[in-house]
Structure formats: C-alpha cells, structure tokens
Write a structure and sequence with these properties.
Layout: H1 2-28, H2 35-38, H3 45-56, H4 62-74, H5 87-122, H6 127-141, H7 144-162, H8 170-187, H9 192-215, H10 225-244, H11 250-267, H12 270-273, H13 279-300, H14 305-330, H15 332-338, H16 358-396, H17 399-406, H18 411-439, H19 443-448, H20 454-463, H21 467-495
Helix pairs in contact: 1-21, 5-6, 5-16, 5-18, 5-20, 5-21, 6-16, 7-16, 8-9, 10-11, 10-14, 11-13, 11-14, 13-14, 16-18, 17-18, 18-21, 20-21
C-alpha cells in the first residue's frame, strides 16, 4: 500500500510539473496584461505600467518568469496578482466559497442519485423505472444557465411573492397528490390491487397534508414540532433497522426505537437551550449524541450489537438533524421580516452587512445556497442515477447473487451485503472525478448566481492575463484530482478484497 501511494505520488508530481509549464506559458501568451493601462490618458500612465511590469516580472522572458513562480511555490509563496493582492488570500476566499457551494450539492446528488438508481434497478421495467429514466434524461439535457434562470424566476421571485399569502391552490394539491400516489404505487411490489391501494393511500395522505399546510399558512411561519419530529424519528428507526439488520431481530429495533424516543423527548427542551449556539457547541452535541446511541446499541443489541449500534447511531443523527431543522425553521419568520418578505436570495453568497443570531445567519447562508445547490443537484442527479442503475443491474445478474438467493438468504441481505457493495465499485471512479472537479468551481453556476469562487478566480485570471491566480487554481484542482484518484484506488481494495494495490 505504502509503495503504491509513493509511486503514484512520484508520477503525479512529474505530470503536474509538466502541466504547469503548459498552463503558465499559454496564459502568459493569451494577451497583453498592460492593455487596460495603455488606453488610459492620465499623466501617471507610464508609472502604473512600470509598477505592474515589475510586479508581474514582464521585463524577463516567460521561461524565467515560470521558474521564478515555481521557486516561490516551492517556498510556499503563491505570489501576488497584477493588482498586488496576495494570491494565497484570494485563493483561500475563493476555495472557501466554492466548497460552501458545491460540496453540499455534490454529496446530496450522490446520496439521492445512488439511492434512486438502486431502487430503479430493483424495480426494473416498472412505472417507477420508466419515470426515473425519463426524468433523468430531461435533467441531464437541460442547459445549466437556462435552469439557473428558471430557478431564479420561479423558486425565488415567484415564491417570495407567494409567501405574502401562502395558500396552496386546489389544482396544485390535486396534481401533487396524484404524483405522490403514482410514486408510491410504482414503488409497491405485489399485485395490482396492492399497487392501487398504495396509490390511493399515497394520494390521500398527500392531499390531507397539503390541505393542512395551506389552511394553517405553515409556510409563513414554519416549524416541525415535537409530534412531527417524533413521527419522523420513529419512522427512521424502523426503516434503518429494516435496512441494516432486519425487523426479525429485536435488539437492533429496540436500540433504534430507544434512540428515537430519547431524541423526541429532548426535542421538547432543546429549543430553549439552543438560543444562540456556535458550530463548535453543535458539533460537541453531535458527538454526545453518537456516544449515547453507541451505548444504547451495546446495551440493547444483544447478539446483534454491531447492527444495533449502526441502527441506533443513524437514528440518533437523523433525529438530531430534525431538531436542528426545527430550530432553523422557527427562525424563518423573523428572518423573512428582516428581508422585507423576500427571504429567498437570487445572487451572492450572503446579504451584505447582515447581522443576527446564529439561526438568522445560518438561514441567510442557506437561502443564498438554495438556488445554486438545486441547479447543481438537478444536473448531477441524472448522472448518478443512470450509473448506479446500470451498475446495480449488472451486479444483480452475477452468479454469486443468484447463489446467495439459492442459499435462502433474505432479499435484504442479498441486496445490501452482496450486490450493493460490488455495485458501488464503478461508481467510486465517478465520485472521485466529481469531487475533484467541483473543487475547481462551478463556473457557469458561479457566473449566473454571482458567486465569487474558484471558477470566478480562474476566469478573472484568464481575462486579465494574470498567470498567478490561474496557476493557483490549477495547483489546487490538479492536486485534488491526484488525491481523489488515489483515494478511489484505495477504496477499490476495500470494496472488493480481490483487488490488491500491491
């Protein structure tokens, strides 16, 4: 393993070195960095040109300039841009903005896309499978700039206007209820009668739920409350136990239900304790939650302690997330009033000069992240859905899966322990490239939503013929690609014991 990593890093260093030469030379030859100053008519034009020339070392040949930049890089100095600003500071701000924008969107696209793809594979040629395939191809074909503009218009501008009187029209309730019924009917396995029953129940529950939200004007002053948190927590406990242990084992189910019960009880008192917390305090509470859930798993798990700990911890983390979301939603009404009834932002990463408590500041960041995150998720979702579906279908037809079924193993065990793990091996490559790619920034998304991230820094460096920011961008993205690919290779060996990196 160590020899593999050392060999891969050695080769990658030489590849990156060769690439930096090409990128630096192409950027330096792409235009005149003094073009804007040559057009000035002021008396200090010559002095400005002299200062910029000295700052960018324009009086020496390009190969010498590259060696000077490389020497600074090896000493930890990324240099300055043509305006004299530190590239390290610019890079830090841009990388922080980009990670804030794309990491959440990428992780959510992976989780949702892989989950939907696996379900689609297990329901091959069903109505759900055809619908997912159709929607995936539509999402994949949408131009990102057009999708971003549509999100601005209908998820921000129109939604902000609707929030003044958040009443859901009956036709909308009918359409959404029918879609919900069709979704549950397509997911149901069994006879036609069972599917029709699922359709009717799904449509009726959605209609009642939407009617309740409309009648109570929930969107004007949202919140979950202890009852909803409890229902979702106990539902999570049952679902997680069924997935990771099976409902026939009492120990894991009791541990998960205990975690849900403790979390629900705490949800009634936590809002009074989390008036204005910090992220460090919340992280400490999360660690405490995990520790308590591990204890519950060991105490109640019996012979299935490992599965009980997993089910208990996942249930506890989800319940903690629900409590956090409830506190965040409770602050929405006050935040909306401060935004003059326009809480969903359309541009930038935050509201200039906005001051507030922890929850209002978090809401401000979340509302600015909402639209670009949705755009990135919708575009990436199709790729993960199709890849995971194809990979899962290929694995499900393998001999070892048929052998596992022939041995009489439960279908849950066949899917989770045999098919899923091997089905994720091809997806690992896609995840590695996607993570490495998003580090470089979502150029189109950043441009449409006015996000000052890595993509904006790269484009600005190219536009102004300034190699220093461009090279900083390339070093970060190139390094991310090398590291992510190496992690993918290591993950291959974990997922498939037949693979040996040596």
């Amino acid at each position: 393993m160590i020899a593999f990593i050392a060999r891969r890093l050695g080769i990658s260093v030489f590849v990156l070195l060769a690439a930096t030469i090409i990128i630096y030379v192409m950027t330096a030859l792409s235009g005149d960095p003094l073009a804007d100053l040559r057009q000035e008519q002021g008396p200090d034009r010559e002095e400005k040109m002299r200062v910029r020339s000295e700052r960018m070392n324009l009086d020496v040949p390009i190969p010498v300039r590259y060696l000077q930049w490389l020497g600074g890089l090896l000493s930890g100095d990324l240099g300055v841009n043509r305006e004299g600003q530190s590239v390290a500071i610019i890079l830090g701000n841009a990388l922080s903005a980009t990670l804030q924008l794309v990491v959440a969107a990428t992780v959510m696209a992976m989780l949702i896309g892989i989950t939907v793809g696996i379900i689609s594979a297990l329901r091959q040629y069903s109505g759900f499978d055809y619908t997912v395939t159709f929607m995936a191809f539509i999402a994949f074909s949408l131009p990102l700039f057009w999708l971003a503009v549509m999100l601005k218009q209908y998820i921000a501008i129109e939604f902000n206007t609707w929030l003044r009187d958040p009443v859901i029209d009956p036709p909308v309730i009918v359409v959404v209820s029918l879609i919900s019924g069709l979704t549950w009917g397509a997911l149901t396995v069994g006879t036609q009668k069972a599917r029709l029953t699922s359709f009717a129940i799904g449509a009726a529950v959605a209609a009642v739920f939407l009617t309740f939200l409309s009648a109570t004007r929930w969107f004007a002053d949202p919140g979950l409350g202890t009852v909803v948190i409890g229902l979702l927590a106990f539902g999570t406990a049952v679902g997680v136990t069924a997935l990771f242990a099976g409902l026939q084992y009492r120990g894991p189910l009791y541990a998960a239900l205990a975690a849900a019960g403790v979390g629900t009880a705490l949800s009634a008192v936590m809002p009074g304790l989390l008036v204005d917390p910090t992220w460090l305090e919340l992280f400490g509470l999360l660690l405490l939650t995990v520790a308590v859930c591990v204890g519950l798993g060991y105490a109640l798990g019996g012979l299935q302690r490992r599965q009980a700990v997993t089910a208990s911890v996942l249930t506890g983390v989800v319940t903690a997330g629900l409590i956090f979301m409830d506190a965040l939603l409770n602050a929405f009404s006050a935040y909306s009033r401060r935004m003059r009834g326009r809480p969903i932002a359309t541009i930038g990463s935050n509201t200039p000069n906005f001051r507030g408590d922890f929850w209002q500041l978090t809401l401000d960041s979340a509302t600015h992240l909402l639209l670009p995150t949705m755009a990135l998720i919708l575009i990436s979702l199709a790729t993960y859905t199709r890849y995971s579906r194809a990979s899962m279908l290929e694995v499900m037809n393998q001999d070892y899966v048929r052998t596992a079924r022939a041995k009489g193993l439960p279908e849950r065990t066949v899917i989770v322990k045999h098919a899923f793990r091997n089905g994720m091996i091809p997806i690992t490559t896609l995840i590695a490239f996607d993570f490495a790619g998003v580090i470089g920034g979502a150029v189109v998304t950043e441009s449409v939503f006015g996000w000052k991230g890595m993509g904006n820094m790269f484009l600005e460096g190219l536009r102004t013929v300034d190699p220093a920011p461009v090279m900083a961008f390339f070093i970060v993205t190139g390094g991310a690609i090398v590291i992510c690919n190496m992690l993918a290779d290591i993950l291959y060996a974990y997922l498939d014991p037949r693979i040996r990196l040596s």
